Amino acid sequence: MSRDDILPEERLPASLLTGFLGSGKTTLLSKLLRQPALAETAVVINEFGEIGLDHHLVENAPEQTVLLDSGCLCCSIRGDLIDTLRSLFRRRVKGEVPPFKRVVIESTGLADPAPILQTLMSDPLLADRFRLDGVITTVDAVNGMDQLDRYFESVKQAAVADRLVLTKTDLATPAQLAALRARLRQLNPAAPQILARQGEVDGAALFDAGLFNPALKTPDVQGWLRAEAYDPREADEDHGHAHHHGHGHAHEQTALDPNRHDAHIRAFCVTTERPLDWQRFTRFIETLIARDGDRLLRIKGILNVDGFDTPVAVHGVQHLFHPPALLPAWPDADRRSRLVLIVKDLAEPGIRQEFSAVTAG
Ligand SMILES: Nc1nc2c(ncn2[C@@H]2O[C@H](COP(=O)(O)OP(=O)(O)OP(=O)(O)O)[C@@H](O)[C@H]2O)c(=O)[nH]1
């Protein structure tokens, strides 16, 4: 790892828009694309049922939209996604498509987000040209509860989100909305919950969720990591645009109903004040990946590494880790290493213990 590993900011941001079948992805996207700030956006759509609406969207933005129609994004067509994104970039360079500044990949409602994220991270050409801006997950305010109960994919999509958009809020009762929000906050404490009606939301709340914020021209560690959201003392605080009336509903993950899929997911943050020995940290991560890679839905972190004046950012999805990036500066006076983990069927205390061992004298 060296300064050469600093991620180039000029790569195009790519957002993954996911969410259960019929949860309002296309409605949201078609409204978003009408916002001036998102005018220069290319869209890659994975068709899977409900063709009519998606075609409507394609008609709205013919040159910037590429349709992937070979089935479910998460299984066989990873190669297609690679080819599509590569070709989109080539066409952009040749001037065959408008010079888009960001990409949104709309996945099928049944997709597991992990392979899509891995594709962006692992294909060398794509990783040179695109950077993951964030995962945006739509959750139906009326049917979301039931979908979370019944489909583990739906839980996963919500758990790994950087932004949660609660759709169809015009149809939900206040009680439905409050219950869903509390559940989502427990599942994913860090993601701001944005309320949408007929796809109307402020695009600024959904994009630029990544580590590199072009507007700030500097890494936005807080916005990306949101490590404080995992602190139990902060758990009742309002995140993002959420308004809830803290009656103690979101704090302790221990209260999870064991019969729910949610009980398989843990989202937590491990921290340490002591600078980390890079080799020991690497061993810790490598062991974790080798043993539990399938269960690491997402890891993000900022590390204070012994011998480095500035922090190192790490980001991984399951077995795949992005090359660590040495950032130009610490964002503030807080020099603690912070590692956020979203895991499935992995015991939090065990990981905490292993992480402490990395930092033990
Ligand atoms: N009342 C109401 N209806 C909505 C809202 N958002 C979406 N819908 C409707 O819900 C249905 C599904 O919306 P889509 O945008 O097609 O959902 P999707 O997630 O793209 O669906 P798939 O591509 O099939 O997974 C459509 O009939 C939309 O008009 C909303 O905020 N309020």
Secondary structure blueprint with pairings:
Blueprint: E1 12-19, H1 25-32, E2 41-46, H2 51-60, E3 65-68, H3 78-93, E4 102-106, H4 113-122, H5 124-129, E5 130-140, H6 144-150, H7 152-159, E6 163-167, H8 174-187, E7 193-195, E8 212-213, E9 218-219, H9 221-225, E10 265-272, H10 278-292, E11 296-303, E12 312-317, E13 320-321, E14 325-326, E15 337-344, H11 348-359
Parallel strand pairs: 1-4, 1-5, 2-3, 2-4, 5-6, 6-7
Antiparallel strand pairs: 8-9, 10-15, 11-12, 11-15, 12-13, 12-14
Helix pairs in contact: 1-2, 6-7
The structure holds guanosine-5'-triphosphate.
Catalytic activity: GTP + H2O = GDP + phosphate + H(+)
Function: Zinc chaperone that directly transfers zinc cofactor to target proteins, thereby activating them. Zinc is transferred from the CXCC motif in the GTPase domain to the zinc binding site in target proteins in a process requiring GTP hydrolysis.
Domain CobW C-terminal: 265-359
- If strands are numbered along the chain, what order do they take across the biggest sheet? 3-2-4-1-5-6-7
Gyration radius (Cα, Å) is 20 Å
Percent in helix: 25-40%
Assembly status? single chain
Instruction: Outline the low-pLDDT stretches.
Output: 1-7, 48-64, 67-77, 233-254
Tell me what portion of residues adopts beta-strand conformation: 15-25%
CATH architectural category of the largest domain: 3-Layer(aba) Sandwich
Protein name: ATP-binding protein
Catalytic activity: GTP + H2O = GDP + phosphate + H(+)
Region (Disordered): 235-255
GO molecular function, one term: hydrolase activity
